[in-house]
């Protein structure tokens, strides 16, 4: 939690040894908390008054006739109960009324109709009430602390944050920041190549903050596109200064990313500025992300040109855009197809996400190639559909890919992929 000017540390977890105390000095009595917290004294006193009044309500049924006096400077507390004097035998409400004989034990000159103010000692409330008061106070202070933490991290959502590895579990890494706040990084927010050890300093973006009950749950992510965007802001001055704008970021975390950038200053080459001489500027970002391959693409409103750039390093021969259905047919020379698809199909997948179009790849002038649909008598249609979803429409497009990549891109079993390749290979061997 952040230390604020004018605040003093109060170490709380209360042992209310109230049964041996006549007067309660709050600064001293509420001073055995496990962890140091930081809270201004006025706020503490407000919490204390609320807790005491709730306790009085439970004990006496009502707190309207009680004065709770708290001195924020000295930390002193006084509780006074105000009651009206009535004749003996006419008391209807013990909390708001007192008999004349009882009142005269306090002051002999009290008369019927007068108000009597009597100090209530905590020791007189009873052991159970005092224990309940202690628990409620602890809960309220925790609630206050959690509220501050929640507000602090809500303002940090989408920002880079650094924390230390505290505990590594199978499906989550528990982190602690400098103030002891717990931050969680689930498995699906971790880069697959990352390895964590206790004490390691980890960077990521605060992805979300949720309240579970009164406790804030802070989620950190290293796989979010926002993390890559913020790294660009940190490491590239032109991005930080707003001279270069990041239009869109898409990632396969730890594998490949594409970043579309633009500049409203014609004198600035946005791609060159981001990459730097021989990749000097982007190298640190690549290393931070586990050697994630980052393509920086010059954004343009010209959709045809944008798709061409998005498919880099492949060189597109021609393309047909269907704006209504958000699809595009891309035609390439045979030696460019594998570049367009990329290792594991990442390049074509990210190009589609970057442009917002579903991209289908076709070979230009490939008379010897055969459409996969021609094999429907030997290969099940759903298997052909899986290959087509991965941008593989022809026999050669399948045969040019490694078995491992085909399994990843199609989610098909290796045995199925091998069987398909056998069928396609036999077709070409027969033709030759």
List keywords for this structure.
5-stranded antiparallel β-sheet; OB fold (Dihydrolipoamide Acetyltransferase, E2P); alpha+beta; 36% helix; 432 residues; 5-stranded mixed β-sheet
Quick rundown:
The chain is α+β, with helices and mostly antiparallel strands and 432 residues long. It is 36% helix and 26% strand. It starts with 7 loop residues before the first strand and ends with a helix.
How does this model look, in words?
The chain has 15 helices and 18 strands. Residues 1-36 have low confidence and may be disordered. Among the domains are: 8-79 and 121-151, no CATH class; 158-222, Nucleic acid-binding proteins (OB fold (Dihydrolipoamide Acetyltransferase, E2P), Beta Barrel); 224-299, K homology (KH) domain (GMP Synthetase, Chain A, domain 3, 2-Layer Sandwich), CATH 3.30.300.20. The strands form 5 sheets. Strands 2, 4, 5, 6 and 7 form a 5-stranded mixed beta sheet that branches. Strands 10-9-8-11-12 form a 5-stranded antiparallel beta sheet. A 3-stranded mixed beta sheet has the order 13-14-15, sandwiched between helices. Helix 2 crosses helix 4 (127-154), helix 5 packs antiparallel against helix 8 (280-288) and helix 9 (303-310) packs antiparallel against helix 11 (346-355). Helices cover 36% and strands 26% of the residues. Strand 4 (66-71) and strand 5 form a beta hairpin. It has 432 residues and is α+β, with helices and mostly antiparallel strands. It has helices at 26-29, 41-60, 100-106, 127-154, 225-235, 237-240, 270-275, 280-288, 303-310, 334-341, 346-355, 381-389, 395-399, 403-410, 414-431; strands spanning 8-10, 24-25, 37-39, 66-71, 76-86, 97-99, 115-119, 160-168, 172-176, 182-186, 201-212, 215-221, 244-252, 256-263, 293-298, 318-322, 327-332, 358-363. The chain starts with 7 loop residues before the first strand and ends with a helix. The longest helix has 28 residues, at 127-154.
């Amino acid at each position: 939690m952040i230390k604020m000017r004018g605040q003093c540390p109060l170490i709380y977890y209360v042992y209310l040894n109230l049964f041996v105390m006549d007067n309660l000095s709050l600064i001293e009595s509420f001073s055995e908390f496990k962890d140091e917290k930081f809270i201004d004294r006025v706020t503490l006193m407000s919490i204390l008054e609320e807790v005491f009044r709730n306790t009085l309500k439970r004990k006496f049924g009502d707190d309207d006739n009680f004065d709770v006096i708290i001195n924020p400077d000295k930390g002193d507390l006084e509780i006074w109960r105000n009651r009206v004097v009535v004749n003996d035998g006419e008391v209807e409400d013990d909390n708001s009324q007192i008999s004349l004989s009882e009142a005269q034990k306090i002051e002999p000159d009290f008369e019927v109709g007068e108000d009597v103010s009597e100090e209530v000692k905590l020791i007189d409330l009873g052991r159970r009430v005092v224990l309940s008061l202690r628990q409620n106070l602890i809960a309220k202070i925790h609630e206050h602390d959690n509220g501050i933490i929640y507000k602090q991290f809500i303002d940090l959502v989408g920002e880079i944050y650094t924390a230390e590895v505290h505990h590594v579990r199978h499906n989550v890494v528990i982190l602690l920041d400098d103030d002891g706040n717990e931050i969680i990084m689930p498995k699906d927010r971790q880069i697959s190549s990352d390895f964590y050890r206790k004490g390691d300093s980890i960077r990521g973006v605060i992805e979300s903050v949720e309240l579970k009950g009164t406790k804030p749950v802070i989620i950190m992510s290293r796989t979010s596109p926002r993390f890559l965007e913020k790294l660009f802001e940190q490491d590239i001055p032109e991005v930080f200064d707003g001279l270069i704008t990041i239009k869109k970021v898409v990632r396969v975390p730890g594998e490949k990313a594409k970043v579309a950038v633009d500049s409203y200053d014609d004198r600035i080459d946005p791609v060159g500025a981001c990459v730097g001489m021989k990749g000097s500027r982007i190298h640190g970002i690549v290393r931070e992300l586990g050697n994630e391959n980052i393509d920086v693409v010059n954004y343009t409103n010209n959709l045809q040109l944008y798709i061409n750039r998005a498919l880099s390093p492949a060189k597109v021969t021609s393309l047909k855009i269907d704006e209504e259905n958000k699809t595009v047919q891309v035609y390439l020379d045979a030696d460019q197809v594998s570049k367009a698809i990329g290792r594991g199909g990442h390049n074509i997948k990210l190009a589609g996400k970057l442009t917002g179009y579903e991209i289908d790849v076709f070979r230009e002038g490939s008379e010897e190639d055969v459409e996969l649909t021609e094999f429907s008598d030997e290969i099940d249609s759903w298997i052909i559909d899986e290959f087509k979803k991965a941008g593989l429409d022809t026999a050669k497009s399948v045969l040019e890919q490694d078995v491992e990549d085909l399994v990843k891109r199609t989610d098909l079993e290796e045995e199925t992929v091998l069987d398909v390749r056998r069928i396609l290979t036999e077709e070409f061997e027969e033709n030759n």
